[in-house]
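Q: Give me the 3D complex with 1,3-dihydroxyacetonephosphate.
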Amino acid sequence: MSIRAATVEETYHLMVEKLSRVVPDAELRYKADLVFEINRLKEERGAIILGHNYMEPALYHTVPDVVGDSLELSRKAAQTDRDPIVFCGVRFMAETAKILNPRRTVLLPAARAGCSLAASITAEDVRELKRQYPGVPVVTYVNCYADVKAETDVCCTSSNAARVVEALGSDCVIFLPDEYLAQNVARETGRQVIFPSKQPKSSDARAAAPANLHYHLIGWRGRCEVHEKFTVDDIVAVRKQFPDVVVLAHPECSAEVVQASDFSGSTTRMIEFVKKTKAPRFLLLTECSMGDNIIAENPDKETVRLCSIRCPHMNEITLEDTLAALKHNRYVIDVPEEIRVRARRALDRMLEIG
Ligand code: 13P
Ligand code: SF4
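A: Here is the predicted complex, encoded as C-alpha cells.
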C-alpha cells in the first residue's frame, strides 16, 4: 500500500495513478509533500504504519504498510517487530495494538479519535452485568476500551463475532456493547437478545433476568453513530432507482437493514466482495471513505453515493497528524499493566478462535 518513491514529484505521479478518480489534483499536489516526508521518516525511524479501511483515500493508499479491518490489524500489531507502531485508526484500536505488543511504542496520530460504541460502556457496567448474571460468559466487541476488555472472557470483531459466541458452547452469553451487532449475531446463532436496564439496583437484578436464559444474548444499548443512520427506506429508494444494485451492509447496521441487504460483513469482507463479484453497481452502508477507497482500486465498478456519512473519529486522523506523530513521537498509548494482562487474555482467546 505504502508509496515508495525517491522524490516528491515521483510520489505525486504515483498518487495521481492511484487516486485521480477520487481526489482532486490540487489536493494530490499538496498531499504529495506530506506523503513523501511521512514515508521517509517512517523508514528512518524503523516504524510501521497500520491503517484502518476507513482512512481517507489520500492517506489509505499512500502511507500504511498494512491496511485492514480490526481483526487483521490486531493480528499484524501482535506480530510486528517494528517500532514505533503508528496506528491510523481510532483509540480502541491503538490500545489493542499496545495490549498485544507491549514492548513497542504505539502512537495514535490524533489524541481525540474516539468511538461512540467504546464510549457507551464502562468497566463498572460490565461488572454490574456479571453480578446480575453470574457465571454467564462475557464477549465484548473490540470497539471498547482496555478496562472493559479486561472484564471480558473473550473479545470479538465484526468478522468473527458469531464464531466466537458459538465457540463458547454456552446457551447464554453476555454480548457487549453494540445493540445492533448483538441482534445480527443473535439471528445468525439462533438466539434472542434481551437488554437489561442500565445499572439496575442489585435488588432488582434477579427480577430483571428472565427465568429461562436458554439461547439468549444479553446485550447493551451501544450504537455506532455512523451505521445507526442507515434505514430500510434508504435501501428501498436506491433499489427502485437502480434495480441491479447490490447492497452491502456492515453488521453494526440494524438487523432490519442487514436483512434487507444482499451481503453483510466486516469492512475487509465488504472490500473483497466488491472485488470478486461481477455486479457493476454497489451500495455500501458503511463509512463513506471506504467507498472512495474501493472506487480507487476498482475503476470498472460504480458505487451509489447514498449519503456522505463520515465517522468523525476516523476523520480525526490526517496526513498532517501522522507526520507530526512520527516527528514528535505522539500521542503515546499506554495501558496500565494490571489491565493490559487481563485484556490480553480476552484478545488472545479471540485470536485463537480466529
Ligand atoms: P471492522 O472490524 O469491520 O473494520 O469494523 C471496525 C469499525 O469500527 C466499523 O465501524
Ligand atoms: Fe466507532 Fe462507528 Fe466510528 Fe467505527 S464507524 S469507529 S464503530 S463510531
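A quick observation: Confidence is low (pLDDT under 50) at residues 199-208.
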